[in-house]
Amino acid sequence: MPTMTSMSNMPNMPHKHHMPQSIIVHPVDQCVVECLMSLKGKVVILETTRGRLDGCIIDVKQDHVVLEERHMKFIVRICEIVWIMPEY
């Protein structure tokens, strides 16, 4: 088994300090979080990048909202929400 020092001499082997690393950051949209919190317990329609959901908001966190529709719970990432419409 080659050691780290012998591996560094091998061609085509990535060096630990040369490996690219990507970090995806989704900033918290505090206005959307506050809006969702104000609608907690109410039925809403959420348009997401994947389609439309309607149901009751049962929980809100900084990065996701939990929606209950027909006894099924959906966890929706806030960064995927396009628009929110309360049902009255």
Name of the CATH first level of one domain: Mainly Beta
CATH architecture of one domain: Roll
As a whole number of angstroms, the C-alpha radius of gyration is: 22 Å
CATH fold-level topology of one domain: SH3 type barrels
The run of helices and strands is HHEEEEE
Protein name: DUF2642 domain-containing protein
InterPro entries: DUF2642
Organism: Paenibacillus lutimineralis
Pfam family, one: DUF2642
Explain what the structure shows.
This protein has 88 residues and is mostly beta strands. It has a domain of 61 residues: SH3 type barrels (Roll). It has two helices and five strands, in the order ααβββββ. The protein has a five-stranded antiparallel sheet with strand order 4-3-2-1-5. Strand 2 and strand 3 form a beta hairpin. The longest helix has 9 residues. The protein is elongated, with a radius of gyration of 22 Å. InterPro entries: DUF2642. This is DUF2642 domain-containing protein. Pfam families: DUF2642.
Descriptive tags:
88 residues; mainly beta; SH3 type barrels; 5-stranded antiparallel β-sheet; 2 helices; 15% helix; elongated
Tell me the layout of helices and strands.
Elements: H1 4-7, H2 30-38, E1 43-48, E2 51-60, E3 64-69, E4 72-77, E5 81-86
Antiparallel strand pairs: 1-2, 1-5, 2-3, 3-4
Protein name: DUF2642 domain-containing protein
InterPro entries: DUF2642
Pfam family, one: DUF2642
Give a brief rundown of this model.
The chain is mainly beta and 88 residues long. It contains 2 helices and 5 strands.
